[in-house]
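Q: What changes when 3-thiaglutaryl-CoA is included in the input?
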Amino acid sequence: MLAPQHRRQLLHLVGTMTFKAPDYYQLDELYSDEELLVRSSVRKFVEERALPLLPACFAEGRFPRELIGEMAELGLLGANLEGYGCAGIGPVAYGLALQELERGDSGLRSFVSVQGSLGMYAIHAHGTEEQKSRWLPELAEGKKIVCFGLTEPDFGSNPSALQTRADAAGDEYILNGNKMWITNGSIADVAVVWAQCDGEISGFLVENGTPGFSSTTQEGKWSLRTSDTAELHLEDCRIPRGCRLPKTTGLKAPLMCLNQARYGIAWGAVGAAMACYSEALDYAGSRVQFGSPISSYQLVQQKLVDMLSGITASQLRCQRLGRLKEGGSVRPQQVSLAKRDNVAMALECARNTRDILGANGIMEEYQCGRHMRNLESVKTYEGTHDIHTLILGNDITGISAFGEDG
Ligand code: TGC
Ligand code: FAD
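A: The predicted holo structure follows.
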């Protein structure tokens, strides 16, 4: 249920929207007023506040930090969590919000996914009352930023064998290891770090500024350029015992967080696809070649129809997944199918749009190239496309094809 202060903020924001999203199967009829309100307010925010900034941020390789406050006011940080100043919206409203953010840019959605679904969720689900009260309100207000350090240089798809260690020493833990590809890594006030401890994977809250803890921004990305990505270094980093997330014993704890973020990505990808489809449809209707708009040619129509068909299938998948999540019966493998297929669909839409735009498709002033480059990262993170194929293969055959460690 949407908290009253967030509802007031959303109503204030809703106005005339210029973007008309494809809704071929009239899914809007299936959303509640509250879900539609969340969607339209985030749509307006993206249109008026984010999209004017995002192309330049992408060109500069800069995360638009100035948008954090407004996203917090909209209740977008930890939006689907209950209490501690979080908005407490339902899974479908949350999905629609992420869809709109990623219509702007995958980097913007990434920030919100990591802050809420990975970092805040980890503390909310696995933390003590003291850890929750200390961190969650300020994280929801955007006054503090969190990152989630699971991946390491040598352990990406297979985090079960990660090497970072936490060794107990009196009333402290000593952490040693390196994390890589960490979203929000160099701007975070606190990192959720996953480490081997007493023979199990466990989560630890490491504050920025702790001696022995540092980060290095990963420069040179041609994808997700509006998102901060960093390496984390832990060198004899001592933290109080109370910084361990007590309910984390085993890989299941971080995987539970990934589930939340993968769910959001499934919706987000639809937003990126919508942005591309809309650009392709507009362009094809106005670009004249051989005496007619290119939208009048069968081959171009086929591409447009393929995009609409993919978007519609993904919208239906999200809708159903959201209702299952609302009812508490969604399975991780169902989330995997949606993350895998919706991202592949969005990437295909971005590539088709680039093609329909001809030479213009490679220009920064059009969105499809930025979305296409971003979606290459989205395809890889939170479990690669192929890892989700193996998760599903395992589910339907009962046979794990991950290899020796799987
Ligand atoms: P496995 O034996 O299958 O599972 C271990 C335990 O965990 C349970 N489990 C899950 N629980 C909740 N959600 C899920 N999705 C779960 N998947 C498995 C499982 O039931 C078991 O529980 P129990 O009680 O029996 O102990 O573990 P495995 O070692 O065989 O690993 C399986 C595998 C390969 C699927 C897993 O390691 C995996 O998902 N790998 C991909 C790694 C990944 O996704 N990394 C993401 C890093 S974070 C990130 O990318 C953020 S980008 C965000 C942004 O910027 O937007
Ligand atoms: P690898 O695991 O080395 O995989 C390489 C290739 O091998 C892939 O194609 C993969 O599908 C394939 N492969 C691997 N195993 C198998 C197998 N058993 N069978 C068949 N094929 C296989 N991580 C975090 O912890 N926190 C973050 O905030 C975060 N943010 C990220 C942001 C960005 C921009 C990017 C690009 C990544 C981020 N990641 C983050 C890391 C991300 O989760 C990993 O990149 C991802 O899990 C894949 O790991 P890897 O890159 O090491 O690839």
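Observations recorded in class: The beta strands are 146-149, 165-169, 172-183, 190-197, 200-207, 213-217, 229-240, 288-289, 292-293.
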